[in-house]
Amino acid sequence: MASIASSAAALRLPALLASTCTSSCRALSGSASTMALAQMPRVAAAHLNPVAGFVGAIGNTPLIRLNKLSEETGCDILGKAEFMQPGGSVKDRAALFVVKDAEEKGLIKPGGTIVEGTAGNTGIGLAHVCRSKGYKCVIYMPNTQSQEKIDLLRMLGAEVHPVPAVAFDNSENYNHQARRHAERLDNAVWTNQFDNTANRRAHIETTGPEIWEQTDGGKLDGFICATGTGGTLAGTTRYLKEKSGGKIKCWLADPPGSVLHSYIQSGGKLMERQGGSITEGIGQGRVTENLKPDIGLLDGSLHIPDEESIKMVYRCLDEEGIYIGASSALNVVAATQMAQKLGKGSRIVTILCDGAYRYQARLFSRKWLESKGLVNAIPEHLQKYIVLN
């Protein structure tokens, strides 16, 4: 397996997000200021000065202690606030890296078209990156995704094709339709987020190092998150495992309808995908190329029911003042359970993928919650937040 350093060198990408802001900001004047910047953690340093456009703002998100849950468990439950990315989700990182990968490989020229199959957030990140770089953007997505995501993509200038949600082995799967669309165009590339390992590399080079520095040099016991493409979980796990000498435990969190929890628990047996989840953009029916190199590094996995995820959406809003989507809430549930399993005093990091505003017409609608049988999963004192019909 290639080391972190060699994998980064092979891609020949600049240290886009892992470096301090000196490459994208005005240099500080004076040797004392320069020395202070050099000694400052990258996340803090990145916010000292203006950055170079949208892409310069990607990364370096805060790590938030979830106070109520931390007090309940006697642990530190920490959430990486990816909803504070300029495009609103953790997928901004992957979007930037897959576009940079295409540029580095000469697969796209100025004025070209980026095509992707996505459940929404990668598409939103790509639409932002494409606008900032002057590319056209075409998105294929399952028609089960929230209307808020579809509307936002179109507002960002993307050409959006919602298509029936079918399995990956079906030729009409949204990923295959995106690939064929790119093949029909000149100066176009299908960025293939699920199996393009530039996605994983984004987290080896940025998310992992940021978490390491934000926990005072890796003073943490566990990392856990759900996965769709596999990039966030795999890349962050790879970095934290190598940097800690394997000491940091890394687990997968999985929603209903995904096969990865059973795959890990069975020692590598893929089950047929059954059922579904209210969460969007996570869960998987196969081991992607992004996940494949690092799935063997995972120490465990947890299955998180939708009832627990929706309850945590409302708890985080009420107790922490944090407005997160169901996938983020699932991660928080998983981090809490991991902390309880590792014991009091443990320190766990997870990913707060995006905000609830992309799903609010569903998550805060009584009619929708009733249709999913989830109203009773929300404690009575929290049902005051169900404000939509």
Automatic annotation (TrEMBL):
Keywords recorded for this protein, A-Z: Amino-acid biosynthesis, Cysteine biosynthesis, Mitochondrion, Pyridoxal phosphate, Signal, Transferase, Transit peptide
UniProt main location, coarse: mitochondrion
Enzyme class: transferase
Obligatory cofactor(s): pyridoxal 5'-phosphate
Lineage: Eukaryota, Fungi, Dikarya, Basidiomycota, Ustilaginomycotina
NCBIfam families listed in its UniProt record: PRK10717.1 (NF007989)
Name the UniProt record assigns to this protein: Cysteine synthase 1
Free-text function comment from the UniProt entry: Catalyzes the conversion of O-succinyl-L-serine into cysteine, the last step in the cysteine biosynthesis pathway. Can also use O-acetyl-L-serine.
